[in-house]
Specification:
- This protein is mostly beta strands.
- The strands form 4 sheets. Strands 1-20-17-22-15-13-14 form a 7-stranded mixed sheet, with no helix packed on it. A 7-stranded antiparallel sheet has the order 2-3-4-11-6-9-12, with no helix packed on it.
- The protein starts with a strand and ends with a strand.
- Belongs to the pirin family.
- It holds the Pfam family Pirin.
């Protein structure tokens, strides 16, 4: 089963200093029928104005991943971590028993765009932790590159959940196959471009697909495409 959700069906907002869209209930957008997909709770596509950001605020029992698409994002927390991340960088925070952090656009001149992803951890009350990793943007072409996984690894952030986040770029006409194990699900987001799923479903920029009970996925680029695929329990 593939549930295609077009970009204009997502909840969009514009607060001047912050604009973007929510794939799941978040903040002022609340839909009791759209609160999660497996352990996935938040998928926000955010753009933060130059010099602006979120003041100190708490989190607990949540795995939070930030994928910076352009610009620079600055993170600081009460664990003593400070980091500035640009495209090719990943920030992963396990909020666990509790953490307080801030995040800001590190530039006074250009916007920063990021994907903000939240997942329930496999265990509550974990010790909070934070890490930054980086991937090679040139390696994304023609393959699914893991950037976050339960096991972690060289250039792969670790996460306290049985899942993997992949990024990929395909040129028009190129294809990839992905095998979805029994009982698992996939979340696909077209960051930029057009992607066809199993010869039937077409994703354009900003569209998402929630995939269940579909053992094999054939992904074909209808146009040059940059996309994310998340394998979830």
């Amino acid at each position: 089963m593939i549930n295609l959700i077009p970009s204009d069906a997502r909840s969009s907002f514009d607060r001047g200093w912050l604009r973007g869209s929510h794939s799941f209930s978040f903040g002022e957008y609340q839909d009791p029928k759209n609160t999660a997909f497996g352990p996935m709770r938040v998928a926000n596509d955010d753009v933060i104005a130059p010099g602006r950001g979120f003041g100190a605020h708490p989190h607990s029992d949540m795995e939070i991943v930030k994928i910076v698409l352009n610009g620079k994002l600055r993170h600081e927390d009460n664990l003593g971590n400070v980091a500035v991340t640009s495209f090719g960088g990943i920030q992963r925070m396990s909020a666990g028993s509790g953490v307080i952090h801030t995040e800001h656009n590190a530039s006074d001149q250009e916007e920063v765009r990021l994907l903000q992803l939240w997942f329930m951890p496999h265990t509550r009350g974990l010790k909070p932790s934070y890490e930054t990793t980086s991937f090679d943007p040139d390696a994304l072409t023609g393959q699914l590159v893991p950037i976050v996984s339960a096991e972690g690894g060289p250039r792969i952030a670790s996460i306290q959940q049985d899942m993997t986040i992949y990024l990929s770029r395909l040129s028009k006409g190129d294809t990839l196959s992905f095998q979805q194990a029994a009982g698992r699900r996939s979340y696909i987001f077209s960051i930029e471009g057009k992607l066809e799923l199993n010869g039937e479903f077409q994703l354009s920029t900003g569209d998402t697909a929630r995939v269940e009970e579909t053992p094999s996925l054939e992904l074909q680029a209808s146009d040059d495409v940059f996309f994310m695929l998340i394998d979830l329990p």
